[in-house]
């Protein structure tokens, strides 16, 4: 396969417009304009292009100077999600804790992690494993104490690792003191902190809204003879964000944690913060969901425009402390994603792009389309491969035979794109899902209500695999979820010793992205956009160019990049898997092979 470089990267090429003729994605206006300009000098072209790319990026991310290019700390950070129940158990009760996390900070440092996002560790009845918070300003005893948090924060700081907490903004636990007061009487102080309504008639909820965890989104409470609204589980009543007292209490909470050492929040379930107060029925769509409920178009209780006012207020509070906001922004398309950055880049710095989690196959065309789309909206991208709600990438992309090679391939993609990656714990080992086999073993409520169609999320939340000892070195007690058999081959201790392991590969690519300016700052330039097997692109910053070539097929692929014709005199491999290599103009990629190289004129 002959792959050619875009004209703008070719030394001495005259016509800047030729290869840009039909961009695969909408270009920001300033770039489109620049494309019309003819330039003879390669250097001028590169500087101009990248200058524009950078200016656009900085403007879109609303950043003040945090480095010479104007980037903030979170734009260079590699984030790592820790599901605290499952990371490290210091007191051997079968559930992970904060001291466990503190004991593994050196591992995270060595891996190259700059910030950990800890899924909710606040007091909670654990109906939804922490996403049902009963006190926003404390630590659940099962995870430790506020003093343990302070210790973790200071130990992390010593290692240059920041802490991002998980803020469950949409709902509280039904055991939160606000809700206990709210349900106590129709005239209680906190009554209007939640959404209470009369039913349509006896036994009939106020409307047809469906809980995403199954059944009606309304629960009748006999104490006051009204229904309360819960988009998630019945034990997770929705807060009423139209009440200024709720807004104030929640904003104050963020400030409280910033003072205590948090560097930001991952905001849970932001799409569902507001509901249409007239409660119209949602249109019913054909078919049923995995919980057996009718599909509906959630137009009256999801993605309402009022959300953006709250995002702006949360951002103001974050800016007071130089904190970052990461959004759980499930969006259908890049247009919706763009909205979460804010019209004036005054909302979320890092709305998560979950579109990769919908690809689920090794499709260069699909990845190309998504990357180009996200790149074109101009914000600072935040790609996600998997998390505690999503089957692990190892299973989703793996073919059952070459899973380790595919795990490295996906890591190379994920870690070399423009933006801030968020790893999910264990991804760096090739941890796989361990789904329950029997309904009685299921812990996640949605797996119990949705069985067997919906098995729940236990499979992707299993204990971190530290070594080959019993319970994978996670705990001396029986862990809350069983460890998959793969811990014998995929664990930190063994992989750290193996230079060809998935872990060693992650370390190498993360180290590279921390030091290579093209990977840190550079624009994304797709190459060879019609190739069905190989995804290739450049990251370009000033005169630095990094080529990334990823073979998404099970057969060897040869790519003739015509380096010499394009004036490239040196191709210096930076990271490559197996025998993937360059000879002359040709890069040979082994099945699922990775080749990352520095190019120079
Ligand atoms: C999204 C969280 O990621 C998920 O785990 C949780 O169940 C829901 N929000 C409800 O909080």
How much is the radius of gyration in Å? 25 Å
What level of helicity do the residues show?
25-40%
What is the number of beta strands?
Answer: 20
Write out the strand line-up for the largest beta sheet, numbering strands in chain order: 11-10-7-3-2-1-12
Q: Point out poorly predicted stretches.
A: 12-65
**Distance, first to last CA:** 23 Å
- Number of helical elements: 16
Secondary-structure-based class equals alpha/beta
Give the distinct bound molecules. Answer: 1-deoxynojirimycin
What features would you describe in this structure?
The protein is of the alpha/beta class and 601 residues long. Helices cover 27% and strands 15% of the residues. The chain contains 16 helices and 20 strands. The strands form 5 sheets. It has a 7-stranded parallel sheet. About 9% of the residues have low confidence. It binds 1-deoxynojirimycin. The site of 1-deoxynojirimycin (NOJ) has 9 residues, from loops. The site of 1-deoxynojirimycin has 9 residues, from loops.
List the helices and strands and how they pair.
Layout: H1 29-35, H2 42-61, E1 79-82, H3 98-103, H4 105-111, E2 115-118, H5 146-158, E3 162-168, H6 177-184, E4 196-197, E5 218-221, E6 226-229, H7 244-260, E7 264-268, E8 284-288, E9 294-296, H8 307-320, E10 324-327, H9 334-341, E11 350-351, H10 364-376, H11 393-397, H12 403-416, E12 422-424, H13 445-450, H14 492-497, H15 502-515, H16 517-521, E13 523-527, E14 534-541, E15 544-551, E16 557-560, E17 570-576, E18 581-583, E19 586-589, E20 594-600
Parallel strand pairs: 1-2, 1-12, 2-3, 3-7, 7-10, 10-11
Antiparallel strand pairs: 4-6, 5-6, 8-9, 13-14, 14-15, 15-20, 16-19, 17-20, 18-19
Residues 128, 131, 168, 232, 268-269, 328, 388-389 line the site of 1-deoxynojirimycin.
């Amino acid at each position: 396969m002959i792959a050619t470089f875009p004209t703008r990267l070719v030394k001495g090429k005259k016509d800047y417009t030729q290869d840009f003729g039909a961009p695969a994605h909408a270009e920001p206006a300033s770039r489109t304009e620049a494309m019309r300009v003819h330039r003879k000098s390669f250097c001028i072209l590169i500087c101009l292009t990248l200058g524009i790319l950078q200016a656009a990026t900085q403007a879109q991310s609303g950043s003040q100077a945090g480095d010479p290019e104007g980037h903030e700390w979170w734009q260079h950070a590699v984030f790592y999600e820790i599901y605290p129940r499952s990371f490290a158990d210091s007191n051997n009760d079968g559930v992970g804790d904060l001291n466990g996390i503190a004991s593994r900070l050196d591992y995270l440092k060595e891996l190259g992690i700059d910030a950990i996002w800890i899924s909710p560790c606040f007091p909670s009845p654990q109906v939804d494993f922490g996403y049902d918070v009963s006190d926003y300003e404390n630590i659940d005893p099962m995870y430790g104490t506020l003093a343990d948090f302070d210790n973790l924060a200071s130990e992390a700081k010593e290692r240059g690792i920041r802490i991002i907490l998980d803020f469950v903004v949409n709902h509280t636990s039904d055991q939160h003191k606000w809700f206990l007061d709210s349900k106590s009487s129709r005239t209680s102080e906190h009554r209007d902190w939640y959404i209470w309504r009369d039913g349509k008639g006896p036994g009939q909820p106020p409307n047809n809204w469906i809980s995403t965890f199954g059944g009606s989104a309304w629960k009748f409470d006999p104490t006051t003879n009204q229904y309360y609204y819960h988009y998630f589980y019945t034990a997770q009543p929705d807060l009423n964000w139209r009440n200024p007292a709720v807004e104030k209490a929640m904003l104050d909470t963020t400030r409280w944690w910033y003072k205590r050492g948090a560097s930001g929040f991952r905001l849970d379930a932001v799409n569902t913060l507001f509901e249409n107060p007239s409660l119209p029925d949602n249109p019913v769509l054909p078919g049923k969901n995995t919980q057996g409920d009718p599909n509906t178009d959630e137009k009256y209780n999801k993605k309402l425009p009022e959300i953006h006012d709250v995002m702006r207020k949360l951002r103001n509070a974050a800016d007071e402390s130089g904190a970052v906001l990461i959004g759980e922004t499930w969006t259908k398309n890049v247009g919706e994603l763009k909205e979460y950055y804010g019209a004036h880049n005054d909302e979320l710095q890092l709305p998560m792009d979950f579109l990769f989690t919908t690809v689920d196959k090794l499709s260069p065309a699909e990845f190309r389309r998504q990357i180009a789309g996200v790149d074109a909206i101009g914000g600072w991208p935040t790609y996600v491969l998997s998390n505690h709600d999503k089957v692990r990438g190892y299973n989703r992309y793996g073919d059952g035979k070459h899973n380790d090679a595919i795990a490295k391939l996906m890591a190379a993609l994920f870690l070399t794109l423009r933006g801030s990656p968020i790893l999910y714990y264990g991804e760096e080992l090739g941890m796989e899902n361990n789904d329950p086999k029997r309904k009685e073993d299921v812990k996640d409520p949605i797996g119990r209500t949705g069985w067997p169609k919906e098995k729940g999320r236990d499979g992707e939340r299993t204990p971190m695999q530290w070594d080959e000892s019993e319970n994978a070195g996670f705990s001396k007690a029986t862990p809350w979820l069983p460890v998959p058999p793969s811990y014998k081959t995929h664990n930190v201790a063994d992989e750290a010793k193996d230079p060809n392991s998935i872990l060693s590969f992650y370390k190498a690519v993360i180290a590279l992205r921390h030091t290579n300016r093209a990977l840190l700052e550079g624009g994304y330039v797709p190459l060879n956009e019609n190739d069905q097997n190989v995804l290739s692109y450049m990251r370009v910053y000033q005169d630095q160019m990094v080529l990334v070539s990823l073979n998404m097929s099970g057969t060897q692929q040869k790519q003739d990049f015509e380096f010499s014709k394009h004036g490239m005199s040196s191709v210096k491999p930076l990271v490559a898997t197996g025998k993937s290599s360059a000879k002359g103009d040709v890069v040979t990629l082994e099945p699922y092979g990775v080749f990352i190289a520095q190019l120079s004129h």
